[in-house]
Amino acid sequence: MDIEFLGGAREIGRSSILISEGRSPSGNRTRSDDNDSLLLDFGMSTDNPPRLPLDCDPDAVVVSHGHLDHAGAVPALLSGAARPAVHWTGPTKELAMTLARDTLKLHGGSYRCPFTETELARLTQVSETHGYGETFEAAGYEVTFYNAGHIPGSAHVLVYDDENRLLYTGDFHTDSQRLVSGTTDRPEADLVICESTYSDVVHEKRAAVEQRFAESVKTTLWEGGTVIIPAFAIGRTQEMLLVCAAHDIPCYVDGMGKRVTEMLKRYPEFLRDFEAFRRAKSGARFVTGRDGQRKRITDQKAAIITTSGMLTGGPAMSYIPEIRGNPVNKITMTGYQVEGTPGRELLDTGSAEIDGTVMPVSAQVEAYDFSAHADRNGLFEFLSSYEDTPVLVNHGDRCEEFAAELREEGYEASAPALGERATL
After folding, report:
1. Within 10 A of 97 (CB to CB), how many other CB atoms are there?
2. What values do phi and psi take at 157, rounded to 5?
3. Each residue of 266-317: pLDDT tens digit?
4. Which CATH number fits domain 206-367: 3.40.630.30, 2.30.30.40, 3.40.50.10890, 3.40.50.720?
5. What is the model's pTM?
């Protein structure tokens, strides 16, 4: 089994790994596209224009979960005569389709968009959905999904070729969130490809983060202020909705997260507590954006969960200019802020570029770690089940350093570079 890293190697973004039987009967290495090949993920970066993985022409595709850096470029694989089957869980399919439509809306008709409406339509024709624990065939390999505990529908991917078992972790979390349970599955494997996003970070206990967040928001509302809660549409919006419900914080929900929240009602089996989710959704108010509704909301004391999580667009661009001048108001960042984004600029400088204008913000700005990734302790806890198994580290800003740290602990570990191959 040959493994080629087409993206996400020593970086975060555009994750993609190609698996093939890359040796001829004589034992010589052959081109991967001359053999049955299976692609794991095909994401894009958040750059403008976005960066895609290296070119490939797979026979089938398996997608670990519905985030842009893992699923965002999948429709681009369906250009020309190519029609590889695309395998994913039900939520991952719908989340990926939502992202693709949003990408077309933002970049359609420009060179920045890697696919067209036609290729997006083709995606529904080749899509096959599977549940956790269900083994299926893809490009001649046996594949099984296991709960990865990251977002609804996220999966560890186990690939078996009659001789070897490859485990691709995708993104995962070992601790439970309110939205999804942490991963407990540890399938037997001969090689593990492991993400390493937070390999040098130890998260604060989630209960403590929640308590600080809830107390802060309640204080601002009691003082008559408004709280803007920027949140990623997929996973984080729904997590914050549940957190607000658990702490009796009345809230509005706005942006693309509304569509994702509605969609998840159809997948109760992928949620930790569907009844809690249903109650939280029923108790929130969903913003339509019509007739100046957003302006009226900012004039009342309210908590507003809205996209985008890094202030790169979405309704947050309407809310923040309205509330920025009052120091009683508050902006609570709930996710990692990539360098160069308005969210990161706001945290670092107290001002942010909104619609081309740099605006000073007098409102209070706070950051909370509601990460859906395993931290350093979680990574080591997960990998403790694979102490005698080779580990390839990917999806991180310090893949080589983490691989070296694993070797110090006795693991056989390395961090392949972009375009590099490994053999199992």
Report:
1. 19
2. -115, 115
3. 999 999 999 999 999 999 999 998 878 998 998 888 899 999 999 988 999 9
4. 3.40.50.10890
5. 0.94
